[in-house]
Design a protein that fits this description.
By secondary structure, the protein is an alpha+beta fold. It has eight helices and eleven strands. A hairpin with a 2-residue loop joins strand 9 and strand 10. Helix 1 packs antiparallel against helix 2 (41-62). It is globular, with a radius of gyration of 22 Å.
């Protein structure tokens, strides 16, 4: 019997329509104040500015996928507004909440980390738009990985190699795929995981999601046996 498909819905989309509606309302109100009463320039500008900000945030939320993570018998999909990434269960070595060192304290990072057995299957299928988006979004994560340990020399070495071709298991990658591969290997070396899913795209806590992944993977293996 096949394992049921589980869909995780993104909380990022919450209040998207509300923000957009009130943003449009703020724009109309701000323009109305400008046109009807030039003496109320400051309140009009405030309404207009808040309206623009609200519309931008609302539209950004609306562009996010309804389902952020989907689990099935073969593996799981991570859905991003720039594309989707599939990772098979047979390529997952482990997953957990990544931690960094801040002085003498261990701190949890707001991501779900996935350690891969091989990075090639990911580099072979990841859309270029998604790789580019993740490179941009994960730059603060990269900085955390090296600065928490004050390993600035390693950061400099990585930055120098970021634009060079990448050879993994006799496969050669160039361009944005090579950049993404270098980033994954750097993060794996410093934080222990290749792929990172932000916790704000989940509909539950990171601990609950990790527990779900472990229970689901156990059921998948039981079905396979």
């Amino acid at each position: 019997m096949d394992t049921e498909v589980i869909q995780i819905h993104s909380l990022i989309k919450r209040n998207a329509l509300t923000l957009t509606f009130f943003g449009v309302l703020g724009l109309i109100l701000g323009l109305g104040i400008f046109l009807s009463s030039p003496g109320l320039f400051a309140p009009g500008l405030l309404c207009f500015s808040l309206g623009v900000l609200s519309v931008v945030l609302g539209i950004s939320k609306l562009m996010e996928p309804e389902v952020s993570v989907e689990l099935n018998q073969e593996g799981f999909f991570y859905h991003h507004r720039r594309g989707s990434l599939f990772i098979g269960w047979d390529n997952v070595q482990r997953f957990d909440i990544p931690k960094g060192v801040d002085g003498i304290d261990m701190i949890e990072l707001p991501f779900i980390g996935i350690k891969l057995k091989q990075i090639n299957p990911v580099l072979d299928i990841i859309p270029g738009r998604l790789a580019t988006g993740l490179l941009t979004e994960q730059r603060p994560l990269l900085m955390s990985a090296v600065t928490l340990d004050e390993n600035l020399e390693e950061l400099e070495s990585y930055m120098n190699s970021e634009f060079t071709p990448l050879v993994v298991n006799e496969e050669r990658y160039r361009g944005v795929l090579a950049m993404f591969g270098h980033r994954c290997e750097m993060l794996s070396k410093n934080l222990g995981y290749h792929i990172y899913i932000p916790v704000d795209c989940l509909d539950r806590t990171s601990d609950e999601f990790i527990r779900l992944l472990r229970e689901y993977l156990l059921r998948v293996r039981q079905v396979a046996d």
